[in-house]
Every structure is written in structure tokens, then in C-alpha cells.
């Protein structure tokens, strides 16, 4: 029968309703289950006397695992379980966020923003420009203290971890928990590089996961040294400086190649908080952080105790709040011009300039000296300077008193009235029309239409030569010359020499009423220095890539001639008189021939002096940015003094050389024009003289014997030597327009006998007219 044993009895289920276990307190053995006619257990039965004795009662299971060791076992168990689940969760997050990233096969290091390295003629760095502010350096080329300092304070296990440092992360967590706030970060240098290269600065779980993945990729693809170099050349050091080269030049004004131990500690300390720990903002905080870096370096064995002591004395105490120095005006100018020469800058380039750094410093110092000494007394707050050689190469440029205070370049971008410093163009145009330095005009009150120009001193000198009129900067004579030349001719000549600004064709152009920049005015004067060739101002000589490929090289080797040699010699001689005997006496340079012209605008709003030696042409401007008038400052005052200080410093150690033509005039048999002849000299000749010692005044005729004989006897060859005087025009009674002067005397005689001058010239004079003395052959023989 189903459900019954051999005795016919059924098998009873266990009490618990579950299969019996031999360790159960109430479990039955085979004999127990057979007793009472129950079915015997498979495999036979045992007699009662052979049954095993009852087992000892055991403790319940929950008491079996009690105690400390049971607790620890359970903790380990659950920790393992949690670790497994955490691993699964992390793996899931990595897979999820990793799937949101581009394929690893497309990962590449972003190009470093290009840097523009701007150098002087000696190869020294003037400035770096670009998004980074400095060129990239290899570990071998930078100071070894820099990578050591950064590793010691930022990632001491850099060379042993695989991109992520679990020990460092754990140490950072413990340190932060102990301190109760964020003290130490757990990111490695590789992680920081990955963040800087690829990720945004936001703090999210996704960004952190991606940072780890990118770090592992960087470690697999690049060597440790390559990773460290990339980090040091891209990390932000504050003050718009990215990379160690930019930071070193920003804070210490030197290359990262030359950084000492103390400076390296400051740079490494900046990484924690570039703005807060900047030596330009808080020198004490920067130095305190540097001490921690030095201690970390000593702990890591990079330096010794004696080196620490030395470094403490090397740590800079402060840094300027912004880039300073006149060289940055040059750097800004280069960056303005560079796209027009090579297009967009797509890689690191080196720009070789024409700047002489020693001259640049001397130029800046000369302006600061004069402003500090006298600027406050005369309400002059700003100044600018440009110095150019005969080829047009800019050797020094100062755009203002202090670049850190104002980055506006007054030498290049500001356009102001040049005043009387424009007069050389008026006189040169007159010489081209046939006048000479000895042509005589009447310095007297004059009216041209509604315009009545006056001399600065409101005094008049009567009949004067052009040389005297230029030396004394007589406005009435300049106004007459403009009407004689024609304003259009003056403008054409000025543009031919290098003035690029638009000029107004009116009579007042004689007094410099059209605005120009100091740079173009100075470059135009260079044509008088170099013998009559156009000097196109330029500051960029060459542009090359970091590998040496030439992208641009200037082509100013063959400038066009813009003035004849005889005109240049005559103008140089007359402008020498400005310095030797005229309004520019404050600009005299001992031992050197120098020529130039002063300029002062209405109410002394602007004061200029532009002059040259045989080596340099330099222009100086003083004034105020808001156009506020200065207190009786003229071009012969502060500008001439600053010009002299700079030029003396610039010519120190050089052998004096005469100006073009050495102030001598000879007759040119080829074209009948007076022509300059370069004569040997020791640089001492001149002093406002033409020829062999006769002063350039109404009393001084041409000093060559042929010229004197021609002037006395009126020989037939006189017409061949000098051009015919302009045809005389009869003045209408109604005063219809200006009439050019006729019969201009070439030998110093009066040219106004029976001539109607332009406009209305004459009237009351505050000084007696100067009667020119006519030189005769007998006078020459008698030595008079």
C-alpha cells in the first residue's frame, strides 16, 4: 500500500516540515524510525543495544556566530560584498560616461596656442605675445629646479603611478578628514593635464570619470617626461601667463632657463591658487607658499639644507602688477603689423625686430628723467620718443611715460599738430623751386586773407635770409614760403618724404596745423640725414617659425631717392643753425654735428623736437593726453632736453661723424644747382655755417670764390650756376591773391627791391630791419 512500510505503517513527516538533518536536536536515526512497526531505513536495521548514545545538545545557530571574531567575520564579509557591488557600480559609471566620449582612436593632444616671440637685434627677448604669453620649452631647456619643485609639491609619486595615484588619493582623503576642510588634492599631474587639455573646469562626477580615462590614455601614449613637459608648458600661473616661460618672464623678467631655486619654488607654489598666491598681488603669501615648496623638495631629497638657506635669500619679495617697460609698446606694434605680413599666426613664430634694447632703455629713461624733474612744474604729464636710423629701421620707441599705467602708444597712434617742426618741408619745397639758404625775405607783419600769422615772440626782424628765418623759426617767412611754393607742392614733398597722414592744402600748413604722428614725422626727417632717400619706418626685420623657416623678411634695402643731394646739404646746414644759433640750443651735443627743428602748437598744447646726427634721427613729443595746455613749454625746452640726454647716451663710445655734405656748397656744372659735396672732417665743423666759416646770416654770402666773384661782377656764367628768378607778377590794386617774390638775391643781397611780396607784408615793426651787408671781392681779400 502506498505510503506504508513493510509493516504496513506510514512514514511520519518531520516536525518541522523540512527534511530531517542529522544535526537536528529531534532527528531520528534509522532504528528510531523503524520502531513501532515503522518502515525500516534502507540498508538494514540495528539492534536497540547498538544504538548510539544521545548527542550533546548544541547551542542555537545565532549564538554560534557571536563574539568579537564573529562580528569581524561578518564585517569582512559585508565589506567584500559592498566592494564587489561598488566595483560593479564604478564599472557601470565608467562604461556609461566613457560611451559619451569620442572614440579613443580619435583622441589627440590639442595644439598649444601659438606664441609670438619678439626679439631685439641682439637676439634678446623683448616680449612674448599670444594666448600663452611664452614659448614652449623642453625639460632639458628649462631650469631643473622647476620640474623638481612642481613634483615635490604637487605629485611626489609622479614617476611611479599609472596616471591615477590610489595612495595619494587615500592620503589626501585622510588629510582632509583630519583637517576638517579641503587641504590636499588627490589629482595627479597627469589628471591635471588631462583636465587642462580636454575638459571644462566644472566639478562633476562625469568630468572626474572622463579625467581618469584620459589620464590612463596619456600615460599609455606618452612618456613621463613628455607629460611633465606638456603640463609645465600649459598650466596657468596667473596674470595671463600660461606655461613656465611666460610666468618666469612675467614675474622675474627672465627666461625659465635662468630661474634659480627660490624663483622655482615661487612658481610651483602658484599652482595651488595662481591669483591669490601671485607675487604681484601678495608677495608675503607667495613667499610663505614657496617655503612649503622648499620643505617638500628637501623631504624628497631634491635639495639639501644649505640649498634651502640659499633659496630663502633668492626668493623675490615682489613683482610688478603688470608688464612694464617701453619694449611692450614695441611688442604691441609688432602684433598690430604681423597679420598683414604673414596672415593668421598658426604656429610659434619668432619676430626679429630692429630694436636696440640698450637704446630703448636709454630712451625711456631720458623721458622719465625730464618728466620727473620738470614735468610737474609745467603741467606736462606724458611724452613719447621715436629713434630711426638712415634705413628707416626703428631703433628705439617709447609710446608713453609708463606702459603699466597706459598702453596707448602715443608715438605711433596719436596724431597731433607738429607746429613749426613741419617747416623743413616748406623750406625744402622752396629750395626745390630755386631759392637758396641766402634768399632774403622780409620778416614783418603779414596778412594772408583773414589769417595774420605772428612770430612766437611777437617781434620782427626785417629782411632775413631763409637760413636765419628757419633757425629763429619765423612764422611770417614760413607763411610767405607756402604761398611762394604753393600748399600743394609742400604737401607733395611731405608725402614724398614719408608723411602719410592727410594734410590740408592751406596757408596755415606752414605752421604745422595738419595732424601727423610722431613716427611718420621722424621718419620723414631721416631723408635729410641719409642723403635724400626715403626712410620707410619699420620695426620687423624677419619672421621665422620655431624651426627656422622664413615667413617674411623686409625689403627696404633699395629705397627711392626723394631729395637731391644739394637740397639735402642745404637743409642740413640750415637745420644745424637751429641747434647752434636758433631755437634748439638746448639740444647741442658736444663733439657732434646735429641738426633739427623745434615745434610748438597753440597755447603749448604740444611741444616737439625732431633732429638728427649722422647716425640717428630722433623725434620727441611732450604734452598731455587730454590736450591740456602746458605752462609755456616749447620744443626748445623739455623735448630738446630729453632729445639731448638720449642722443648723448646713444652716441657714447662712437666716433663723431659729420652730417651729409658737411655743410659745404659747391656749384654743380651739370644742372646749374648748388650741390652738396661730402667733405672730410672731424665732426667738429659746422656750427651753423656754410662753407669755410661764414655764419648763415644775411651777412654771409656763398663762401666759394666762384660764387663771390659771380655775385660781385655778375659774370655770364651766373645764369648757368643758378636758376632764373621767378617771373615777376604785377600786384593788382585790389590785392588779388599772393604774388611770389622776384629777383631773389643769391649773394645775400636784398631781394625785395621793387618787389611786391605775397599778401600784405610790412607795417610797423617792433625791431629795426636788419640790413644785409653785401660782400665784395675786396672784402674777401681784406679778410672782412
Automatic annotation (TrEMBL):
**Record-linked InterPro entries:** Beta-lactam/transpept-like, Glyco_trans_51, Glycosyltr_51/Transpeptidase, Lysozyme-like_dom_sf, PBP_transglycosylase, PCN-bd_Tpept
Pfam families assigned: Transgly, Transpeptidase
- According to the record, the segments passing through the membrane are 75-97
Reply yes or no: does the keyword Glycosyltransferase apply: yes
- Where does the Glycosyl transferase family domain start and stop, copy by copy? 131-297
According to UniProt, the reaction catalysed is: [GlcNAc-(1->4)-Mur2Ac(oyl-L-Ala-gamma-D-Glu-L-Lys-D-Ala-D-Ala)](n)-di-trans,octa-cis-undecaprenyl diphosphate + beta-D-GlcNAc-(1->4)-Mur2Ac(oyl-L-Ala-gamma-D-Glu-L-Lys-D-Ala-D-Ala)-di-trans,octa-cis-undecaprenyl diphosphate = [GlcNAc-(1->4)-Mur2Ac(oyl-L-Ala-gamma-D-Glu-L-Lys-D-Ala-D-Ala)](n+1)-di-trans,octa-cis-undecaprenyl diphosphate + di-trans,octa-cis-undecaprenyl diphosphate + H(+)
Q: In which pathway does it act?
A: Cell wall biogenesis; peptidoglycan biosynthesis
Q: What is its EC number?
A: 2.4.99.28
State the NCBIfam families in the record. Answer: PBP_1a_fam
Provide the family line: In the C-terminal section; belongs to the transpeptidase family. In the N-terminal section; belongs to the glycosyltransferase 51 family.
Q: What is this protein called?
A: peptidoglycan glycosyltransferase
Query: From what organism does this protein derive?
Result: Rhizobium changzhiense
